[in-house]
Specification:
Length: 238
């Protein structure tokens, strides 16, 4: 698989929806995690990321304009021991709770399906990132309808052990803009992760996202020696 520029990939797609990027920095020192949200409706765009313990949650920017919180207000990032959970919905809580009861990432997600937002049936994308004495590895999952048919849920999990320096994987909910929105297809994309500082990387991603549709971005670096985390949040609404 050809390694692509994450910056050019984002610039070429006006509406990838929500996206997860996980990989290792080019110098090998950091696990790199990013999650972004975009929106087309006023309700979707009326959001910000806020810190919530070791993770983050979405919050309405203007509470008076919040219409339906069911699919837009959730905790995208939670931490369970040495595991960082990143998702585009309330399946973050499902993964956290069931893994805390000794189930696996895949077992937890078998209890969930794509979002019930006909006609898009937005895929649920999720990642689990493990760091610590056993090294660094991660998995990415997508739960999607059968080409828009909600009678069938298709489940895919991709696992990456000891990811190589300078490489990451990128998955997003929508292949592109459309009506209905077409779901992501295929294997998570192989993207280049450089040796940028966290601020440089965050600004690169934010600058590449479509100006009209971008809403919020979260980036976290985990030092693979000390396990110290450094995070950044960028919100369009201020």
């Amino acid at each position: 698989m050809e390694k692509i520029s994450i910056e050019r990939e984002l610039q070429s797609n006006a509406y990838p929806g929500r996206g997860i990027i996980v990989g290792r920095s080019a110098d090998g020192k950091n696990a790199v995690i990013a999650y972004f949200i975009m929106g087309r409706s006023e309700n979707s765009r009326n959001r910000v990321f806020v810190e919530d313990g070791d993770g983050i949650r979405t919050q309405a920017f203007d509470e008076s304009k919040l219409v339906d919180p069911s699919l837009i207000i959730y905790a995208p990032v939670r931490v369970l021991g040495n595991k960082t959970i990143v998702t585009n919905g309330d399946q973050t809580d499902t993964i956290y709770e069931l893994m805390n009861n000794q189930l696996t990432f895949e077992q937890a997600l078998r209890t969930r399906e794509f979002e019930p937002d006909a006609p898009n049936y937005t895929p649920r994308i999720s990642s689990i990132v493990k760091t610590g004495d056993n090294g660094f590895n991660f998995a990415i999952s997508i739960l999607k309808s059968a080409n828009g048919d909600p009678s069938s849920c298709q489940r895919y999990t991709f696992s990456y052990n000891n990811p190589l320096n300078g490489e990451g994987r990128f998955i997003h909910t929508y292949k592109s803009d459309g009506d209905p929105l077409p779901s992501f297809e295929g294997e998570p994309k192989l993207v280049e992760i450089g040796d940028d500082s966290i601020d440089e990387f965050a600004e690169k991603l934010w600058g590449a996202l479509n100006e009209d549709n971008k809403v919020s971005l979260f980036v976290r670096y985990i030092d693979l020696d000390s396990l110290k985390t450094t995070s950044r949040i960028i919100n369009k609404n201020k």
